[in-house]
Amino acid sequence: MNKTSAAGPKIIQVVGYKNTGKTTMTATFIAGLTAKGLKVAAIKHDGHDHFEMDQKGTDSYQFGKAGAEAVVVISQKRTAIIKQHHTRLDEMLSQFPDYDWIVIEGFKDAPYPKLVMVREADDLTLVRKLEHVVGIVFWLPELMKEALEKETDREETDREETGTVLELETRLEAEAGIRGNGNRYDERHVREIAENWSVEIDKVQDIKGRSIANFLFSEREVIVDAVLQLNLTDYRDEK
Prior knowledge:
Elements: E1 10-16, H1 22-35, E2 40-44, H2 59-66, E3 70-74, E4 79-83, H3 89-93, E5 101-105, E6 114-118, H4 125-129, E7 133-138, H5 141-162, H6 165-176, H7 187-209, E8 213-216, H8 220-229
Parallel strand pairs: 1-5, 1-6, 2-5, 6-7, 7-8
Antiparallel strand pairs: 3-4
């Protein structure tokens, strides 16, 4: 029997634009993880405020319409809770401390490891907008190849634009107003500029240091095994 980690459940998000296969990928994850004996919870973002978990005409539907703030349905094998208000994602996650995994569909801005679904070339724009991307799921091998080639070209360009230490020192002198001022300058101003550059450089190195895996949508079962091998981190403490 699987023993849940004392650190709490691992979290993976499946995100992407509309019609990129998020629900199919999420369902694959759930099936793959449960097949390994892991306890899984699933959370989905719905873009509509008028969704109902139960069908119109059922008792729970009637209770909600009558004004109940929360409706709970308990059967022999299932428990469902419907609350008539928004719940923050972090609050919902706290409801599943004894689970091994939580698979989240949607919530692009949440601070958790993400798989980004890419069905068309334009979908790749989402990858650079998001934080904590650990994998990209491509629908077509040709699209994956093209994306990898572009990323290689971009890295070469970044290296060319970085400049030498001497060039950076010259830029610092120019921005701090050292030259043309009798070699006198405001040390605090120089320190502020240097600190700002340090933050920018750290961000670039952090992004380049993260490895992003590439997968094909047709090999969804393989993706589950691959994600299980990743050292996923809970990024909640960074906020």
